[in-house]
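anyone else get weird line breaks when pasting these?? whatever heres mine. first is seq + tokens for prot A
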Amino acid sequence: MATPPPDDADRWSDEEWLAWLEDVDAETPPEPDSHPIHRRRSLPTQMLGAAMLGLHRAIYGDTEPDVQIVVDADGEPPDPEQLEVHLDPEDPDASTVTVRPWIDGH
């Protein structure tokens, strides 16, 4: 067991502090080599949680927002042939943009 440090830290020299730190470090248990074990929830608990989430979605609807990416750009694209755009006004989810970097004007 290491001796306790003095109340006044200036009473010990640097060598005494280093020796005390080495003694304290030697007393600490080694850290485990593996990751901590996470307990899995039991099957009834998992089923109850899934049922509660499903009930929440049934009552309140889907509350997750749709991801939308909007970018404002000045002017036209540098080379319009590199972009192939197919817009579907009936079903916007079916709209596509294909970037063709292999078509280079140089």
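and prot B, same format (seq, then tokens)
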Amino acid sequence: MKKMKLWAVGALLSVLFASCAFHSSKHSFGPYSAAETFYSKGNYPKAIEKYQEYLAENPKGNLAATAEYYVAKSYAASGNPDRARESFERVLKTFPGTSWAAFSKEQLEALDGVTKV
């Protein structure tokens, strides 16, 4: 009987640990997740690097438009309006008709207002 209880506890622990390991990796988007973390902490150069890594691996992925938009936002926050403009324009060209294209258009207009004063 003792052996049976010990075996049952061992089996239960194995299942619990296995489900934890499976669950944690299930919600990671690799470089995109890392980019989001860097962006939220204001580390824009590392955010750009990781967003671009995601884009290189997933140029048409579900998060590609978002990643390109945040590359542009990161350049703008880093004080590089020319690179920001290039990235916003890439969103407009590559992902027309999306909300990210509309947001990019607004950001381009804001950049134009700042640089043409």
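btw re prot B: The chain has one domain: 29-115. The radius of gyration is 22 Å.
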